[in-house]
Amino acid sequence: MRTKRAGGGELVGIQYLRALAALMVVVFHLDLQVPAFGVTPSLPVGLAGGVDIFFVISGAIMWITTDGRPQTPGRFMFRRIVRVVPLYWAVTLFTAAVALIAPGLLRTSRLDDVHLIASLLFVPWPNPTVPGLYPLVVPGWTLNYEMAFYLLFALALPLSGRGRALAVAAALLAAVALGRMVDTAPLSALAFYTAPLVLEFGCGVLLGWMWTRTGWLARIAPPVAALLVVAGLATMLILPEAVGGRFLYWGLPATAIMTGTLALEARERLPRWRLPLLLGTVSYSLYLTHPIVLSAATRAWQVTGWTGMAGLLFYGAVTLVACCGAAIATWRLVEVPTMWLMRRNPPVAARTNLVSGPLEPPS
């Protein structure tokens, strides 16, 4: 389903943000290859804030696509599973097969039976290779948060509009408060789900409520809205992690970016550009498959022996294009067909520029 404006029309700004957020994550992981080229400068760590943009988008779209549309919790969760699980399982099982057959090809993945099962079930579990609660497909840690948020949102669906928003916000605040009061082990599920970054979903829900229930966003002047987007992105890229919690240094800027984008959307000031729309469409595939492409590209590049800034720039450009190309192919060959099979509907997604992006299924 296409995401609609409150007054009709498509939310192209959300697609642009999905494309931006996915590319930020890809470039952030590209930066991990900088030392191999003998180059000292590195890219801003704030590029990882693309994930935080996704979380705010997720909260907003879950509200926008369900507000005023009767939907049972079971139906809601089914549609979330249809959208998220098939591609994630396909990439996870592919990675597991590579780890079993040719483990030397992977740097951050090692096959472990319990870890694999936990990864498939969206359960935070210590990674045997990378320190932390990361699944076999490392970027999938965000999906563990997403699935938990979907479950929370599903439980709140029977409530009325305002009551639903308040219940979701109260639950997220309570979770963070619990995490601050209870002494938890760093690598525990309780610590994982009570991290302050879960408040980013709440910020998204608040923005979604403003979009459907108030005219406040439409009253923001376009120059102010553009300033919110630019200032939010600049703040995210400039502030180091040492400034404070992730919610403060990336979550709040992500909220500002989303606020400005929706305000511009409300004023119908966003043009339609085909390439960003396409990248927003395939962003879920891009998010999940880019580590595989990066691993293959890095090993292929080692054969050339081309280092230095020139080698790094050429490697980055070629690999970024390869990641986007692989994402488009995965979207067409895997993502769309599996959604069609599970929903038993014509593959409308194959004919629209506005299917969902990473971390955010359509309703």
Key terms:
13 helices; globular; disordered C terminus; about 0% strand; single chain; about 375 residues; mainly alpha
Overview of this protein structure:
The chain has helices spanning 12-30, 50-64, 73-101, 113-120, 141-156, 161-181, 189-193, 199-213, 222-238, 246-266, 274-281, 283-304, 308-343. The protein is mainly alpha-helical and 363 residues long. It contains 13 helices and no strands. Mean pLDDT is 86; it is low at 346-363.
What string, H for helix and E for strand, traces the elements in order? Answer: HHHHHHHHHHHHH
Taking pLDDT < 50 over at least 5 consecutive residues as the criterion, the unreliable ranges are: 346-363
* Inertia-based shape: globular
Structural class: mainly alpha
Q: How large a portion of the residues is in β-strands, by DSSP E?
A: under 5%
Measured between the Cα atoms of the first and last residue, the distance is 6 Å
Q: Helicity level, as a percent range?
A: 55-70%
- E-strand count: 0
Radius of gyration: 20 Å
Mean pLDDT: 86
Largest sheet: none
Number of helices: 13
